Amino acid sequence: MGSAWRWQLSRSMRLVLRWCRQQRGGRGGGSRTQISSRLLELWSYSKLLLHSLCYNSLADSDTLLDCVFEPIIWIVDSLTRWFGVAFVCLVVLLTSSVVIIVYLFVIPTIISTYPVHWAAWHLSCGHWLLLMITFHYYKATTTSPGHPPKNKLNTPSVSICKKCVTPKPPRTHHCSICNVCVLKMDHHCPWLNNCVGHFNHRYFFSFCLYMTLGCIYCSISSWEMFLEAYNAVESYNQTPPPDHSFGGSTAHKCIIFLWVLTSSVSVALGGLTLWHARLINRGETSVERHINRKETKRLRERGKGQIVFVFPGLHLVWLPSNICIHFFRWHD
After folding, report:
1. Helices in 102-199 by DSSP H: which ranges?
2. Secondary structure class of 161 (helix, strand, coil)
């Protein structure tokens, strides 16, 4: 132990003497040059170390922004995933409230005031729309949108998913909320708590269409009742107020709630339905529409042409400079 301690002490003294000699020799004219060269060497080494850890050939401004906003995107995705159940419950609650109000107030009025054939038509049309809405909403929420097979090695693919690190077939995109790749992904719908993809896209569109028709039907059917209820509610502020029972005032408020809700939903959901009908007519999904607009803008800036049609994994481009057709693959 004593010899080891003496060896450590002598080694420390030698290091101190060596450092003092270096400091004494560095007081000459070349000390500043040596210090600056060492600093430049340290800076170059730090840059090389940083590039080796963080840089690659695919890094660009989009990648930098993705890294910066990664925590915010994660928070939004987590909230959307948890709020999906609440949104589905809200859809069921609002639809059930409309159905209850129609059964309690609208249908009795139709049966008592309309002719028999008109009453039969209203009952048939209303129940048919209700059946279609319920069926397609159930199928849209419970049907899987479709995912790439993981066990098959011969699956045709156009790229590799950066999140799943698995081959992606044409028109497949990764959903950050479900954390899985979806075949022919259109978007993640929080009102369904599910992705809209290859196997449930038609159920989603049919639900939007029938829900829009049902809201328009309820809004038109209850228009006269809405005017009467609105005038009755306005008369409550008169002095002295008119005599109305509690049941009558509740019925008036329910009719107003029914008309305002169905009219608002028919306008908002009708616009969404028309947008998706246009996309279906063009053979695109919402994701592909965004990609195609970016590619069209990029090609227009280069003066090469524009995308005129999309089919699985390929873009069809017309080049006006030499009047030819060019195919190229895209990836997200």
Report:
1. 107-113, 116-142
2. coil
Gap between the Cα atoms of 259 and 278, Å rounded: 28
Quickly list DSSP for 280-317. HHHT--HHHHHHHHHHHHHHHHHTS-EEEEEETTEEEE
Report pLDDT digits (tens) over 273-298: 999 999 999 888 988 888 888 888 88
d(CA 222, CA 207) in angstroms, rounded, equals 22
| Packed helices 286-302 and 246-282: angle between N→C axes, nearest 10 degrees | 50
Catalytic, out of 189, 208, 215, 254: 189
Helix (H) or strand (E) holding 180: strand 180-183
- Rounded to 5 degrees, φ, ψ at 60 are -150, -170
Residue 149 contacts by C-beta under 8 Å, 6 or more apart in sequence? 155
189 is catalytic: yes
Q: Global pTM?
A: 0.70
Q: How far apart are CA 172 and CA 157, in angstroms?
A: 9
C-alpha pair distances (Å), 257 with each of 113, 264, 318: 22, 11, 52
Positive or negative, the CA dihedral 325, 326, 329, 331 is negative
